[in-house]
Amino acid sequence: MSNNWNYIFFIAKKLQRKQTVADDSLQGNKKAAKPITRIAVLSISLAMIVNIVTIAVVEGFQQEVSRKVIGFGSHISIQKQGEISLMESAPMMKSEKLEQALQRIDGVTHFQSVAYKPALLQSRGDVEQKEILGVVLKGVDKKYDWSFFKTYLKEGQIPAFKDPTSNEVLISRRIANDLHYKLGDTVNAYFVKQKPIQRQFRIVGIYETGLEDFDKELVFCYLPQVQQLNDWGISSEITVDDTLSYGDLIIRAQVSGGNGNYRYDWGKGFEQYAGFPFCPTKDTVIRLIVADYYISMDEPTGSLDLRDGETAIPDTSYLEIKVRGEKGAACLFRQDSEGNLKKQFLDKNGYHYQLSSGTKMVEIESFPGKGSYQNYISSYELSVEDFSDIENQKYKIKKAVLFNPDFQQQVKVGSIKDNQRDLFMWLSFLDVNLAIVLILMLIIGIVNMGSALLVLILVRTNFIGILKALGASNLFVRKVFLVHTGQLILKGMLWGNLIGIGLCWLQYQFQIIPLDPKVYYLNTVPIEFNLWKIGLLNIITLGVCLIALFVPSLLISRINPAKSIRFK
Questions:
Q1: Which end of the chain lies in a sparser environment, N or C, as judged by fewer CB atoms within 10 Å?
Q2: What is the rounded CA–CA span in Å between residue 355 and residue 362?
Q3: What is the largest CA-CA distance in the chain?
Q4: Cα-flanking dihedrals φ and ψ of residue 140, to 5°?
Q5: 470-496 mean pLDDT
Q6: pLDDT for res 475
Q7: How far from 6 is each of 75, 314, 456, 480, 549, CA to CA, in Å?
Q8: Kind plus residue range of the DSSP H or E element containing 249
Q9: Cβ 113 vs Cβ 102: under 8 Å
Q10: What is the three-class DSSP state of 329?
Q11: pLDDT tens per residue across span 75-87
């Protein structure tokens, strides 16, 4: 008998249709082969269902958790060298030349400046029991990419930051619920500094991502707010003490930020004196430049030579004095019973006021420095085009930053996988679990199909003998049964694909199965349809099962035609 595949498929098709085998020893005709084939088809179907659901869920976990973590941060970050945590990093100086270099890197799609500041938020004022919650303010600029949070915005809108002093914030639903806040409320925030301060922010948007660890911690506000709260750079102001010194006003510098070791330029170069006595006799403008230093007064300002020897960018402030009346009169200005100067304020901020000595009137107006804090950030956040190629992108960014002669700061470049190492390590372990499940289910399918093939051969012993008597070779008969079994495998795979993909679609659309976000980072089981992996799973399942069936098919060569035709 020829090994023509047309004959093989024809015979296999007939075997597929006729599943009943007469067995006189079992008191009549019994369906001996049909239950076996059904079990085999069912085992393959179950294996495919489990494998497809496993692939979709694992892919969903990895993609969804990664996407949300990246949404809170970025693919790659540039921060101060030596710092471990992004949220507790020392400030780095903004650099236009560095930003221009980043724009020229192939594969970098976006970059933005951010800063962090720990804070304590107080619950609403009308709540009986006050609650305090520790959070981290993330300051972002107008270039910040809000596309991720627009997807998870539940109420309100994304902060616009139209005003340089904008106090708008975006908080999570978790924080809002814990502190009993709603959209439009004013939040009281407290910051621990040398002198604790309070700030108020207005809630303009509420988001919810389901990533519990981040939802309960991050609040988004305008970058200048955080820069100023961190006391980065130097901020200066010229003030007049409330008391006199031997009849003279005391002009004093009020400074914050920097390393705390200040030098003052009152117009004659840097010196160590933070103030001086002064009796104005004419209209005067006093200018003050404040910088910090480590060893000597003549150190360069804003130095980046050494990490532990960096000096901050200086700040400049002014004090304008106008004298009216008898200008040469003594500065015996009026005082209260406690010896404090009587100031007649001309504005609400207390920067503009008058002093009177009877014959002489002095009008004083202070112009605080703008501060150099706006020149400092916690880090640059960068987005890249291909996340799968993030290590290569990180190398290119390192090369552009660390070997740039125009950029002298000591910084480090890290990817999201470096900054969230534990989380991504947990996600990588899911690949091991996936491989174990796939292999176990594949073994179960192979064992069941092998058993089914052996039973089919045994119950078709007479048929095999007849084929051999007609001239069929062992190879021909083995091909017939392998094709027959392959058809059963395909049938099981078809049902498995339909049911498995159907279950995944139901979870994807209706989120039937919930999760505890405190444990799994998500509130529902995520689903990610990877058609390429599902197709590869089908090909591997069919191929491995057919190869595994080669061994039980060898039983056919041991069947003797003369004996098998008489076999009962």
A1: C
A2: 5
A3: 140
A4: -125, 155
A5: 86
A6: 79
A7: 56, 89, 21, 11, 21
A8: strand 249-257
A9: no
A10: coil
A11: 999 998 876 677 7
